């Protein structure tokens, strides 16, 4: 068995980025996915690569809004009570991580990962001949009232502490920047050092093509399980079709499917919840357009200009990954978005749904699996996996090769949740 071979399972942004980085460092990499690259969560996101995403959902400000969220009527957050009851220990740990000390650690860790990822995305977009998809003009947080703006104080202070470039806008400034937004927002915050793309799925596809053009292999196959092969500590991947393949190292990058896969194939349990979200594309009335993604904090949606139209994406629905859809948040988001922008009609018959895979401390797991040498993990990227796939790949490749890391790996260590 060639010691250089790596099999990566999952060809979302995380798996594809890992494939490119390990290939760049001299490994012979095969990338497996049951569909084509970039067709799942990495397809349907809002395409924002945001410095501001260093603020996890579980920050100290969560406590003051928790009673309202628990009523289960907010557009920003809904939960299935049965799912919550079955994942109560996840929920307790998630809330425990909203305390100030853990929040500080998480914000610092995510900031480092995001900064690393922004420069990597910019390099990869050029190398993959997809730079035309990149916008570097930031994104906007919109506030429907002065009170709403005042409520964002912790975020603004955190952005300042981490040097995130922002500018507070009044209604006139906002109208200069985005003239087609309706005059609904007395305040906005322009997060300036944020990039976005107009088709995250096609960016992942372009990265996968780059990997193949450099000699990498993409194999369309559903992996049903894995185990030790018996030859020199290698791993064996079992395709659902029955084929068995060997590799000296395996990287699991299955996004929201990793929890089930680890449980089924190795009996390992990870505390992951699914923050489901929906999107729908719209055209605009007349020549109305947006220059950059906007996050209407009161309306609880993001509206992003995409190649396919304006993509409206929703907040969080905590539920089993494959449970039936519940479109109430999309309907509320659409109503709110129509108040803010001249949307015309829906462009698809059915909304897209995906799951943000979230661990209790809102940090991904990146590193070697305890007690399973040669098995590497890269998953749990919650709301920011499109942004942080490329930084994750650098971190994972450095750890695998025993080379110095660009950022501190400890906040992402698998031992946080796996023993
Ligand atoms: C509504 C919404 C909006 C979002 N907006 C943003 C945003 O603006 N910016 C941002 O950074 N992030 C955003 N995110 C989060 C981001 O999309 C995810 O964190 C990221 O896509 C996760 O990438 P991944 O590669 O880990 O997983 P995925 O993209 O889900 O990839 C996992 C892959 O594993 C494959 N797979 C599963 N099981 C098997 C198997 N048995 N065998 C083989 N292959 C298998 C799947 O087919 C899939 O391709 C958003 C998410 C949602 C839901």
From TrEMBL:
InterPro entries: FAD-dep_OxRdtase (IPR006076), FAD/NAD-bd_sf (IPR036188). GO terms for cellular component: cytoplasm. GO terms for molecular function: oxidoreductase activity. Residues 6-399 form the FAD dependent oxidoreductase domain. The keyword Electron transport does not apply. Keywords: Oxidoreductase. Pfam families: DAO. Transmembrane segments: none annotated. The keyword Ribosomal protein does not apply. Coiled coil: none annotated. This is FAD-binding oxidoreductase. It comes from Variovorax gossypii. The lineage of its organism: Bacteria, Pseudomonadati, Pseudomonadota, Betaproteobacteria, Burkholderiales.
């Amino acid at each position: 068995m060639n010691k250089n071979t790596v099999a990566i399972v999952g060809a979302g942004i995380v798996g594809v980025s890992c494939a490119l980085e390990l290939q760049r460092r001299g490994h012979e990499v095969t990338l497996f996915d049951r569909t084509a690259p970039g067709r799942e969560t990495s397809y349907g996101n809002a395409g924002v690569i945001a410095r501001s995403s260093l603020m996890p959902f579980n920050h100290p400000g969560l406590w003051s809004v928790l009673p309202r969220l628990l009523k289960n009527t907010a557009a920003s957050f809904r939960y299935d009570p049965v799912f919550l009851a079955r994942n109560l220990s996840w929920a307790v740990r998630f809330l425990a991580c909203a305390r100030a000390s853990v929040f500080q650690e998480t914000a610092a860790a995510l900031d480092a990962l995001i900064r690393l990822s922004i420069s990597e995305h910019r390099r990869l977009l050029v190398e993959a001949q997809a730079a035309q998809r990149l916008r570097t003009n930031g994104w906007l947080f919109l506030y429907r009232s002065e009170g709403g703006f005042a409520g964002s104080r912790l975020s603004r202070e955190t952005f300042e502490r981490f040097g995130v470039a922002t500018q507070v806008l009044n209604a006139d400034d906002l109208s200069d920047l985005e003239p087609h937004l309706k005059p609904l927002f007395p305040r906005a915050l322009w997060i300036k050092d944020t990039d976005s793309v107009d088709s995250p799925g096609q960016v992942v596809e372009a990265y996968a093509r780059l990997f193949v053009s450099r000699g990498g292999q993409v194999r369309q196959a559903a992996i049903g399980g894995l185990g030790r092969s018996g030859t020199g500590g290698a791993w064996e991947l079992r395709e659902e079709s029955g084929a068995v393949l060997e590799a000296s190292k395996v990287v699991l990058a299955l996004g929201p499917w990793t929890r089930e896969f680890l449980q089924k194939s190795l009996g390992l349990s990870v505390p992951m919840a699914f923050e489901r979200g929906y999107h729908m594309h719209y055209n605009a009335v007349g020549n109305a357009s947006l220059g950059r993604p906007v996050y209407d904090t009161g309306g609880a949606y993001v509206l992003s200009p995409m190649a396919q139209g304006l993509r409206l994406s929703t907040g969080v629905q905590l539920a089993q990954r494959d449970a039936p859809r519940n479109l109430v948040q999309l309907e509320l988001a659409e109503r709110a978005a129509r108040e803010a922008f001249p949307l015309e009609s829906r462009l698809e018959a059915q909304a897209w749904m995906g799951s943000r895979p979230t661990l209790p401390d809102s940090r991904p797991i990146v590193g070697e699996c305890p007690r399973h040498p040669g098995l590497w993990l890269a998953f749990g990227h919650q709301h920011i996996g499109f942004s942080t796939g490329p930084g994750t790949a650098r971190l994972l490749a450095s750890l695998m090769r025993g080379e110095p890391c660009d950022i501190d790996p400890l906040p992402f260590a698998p031992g946080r949740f796996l023993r």
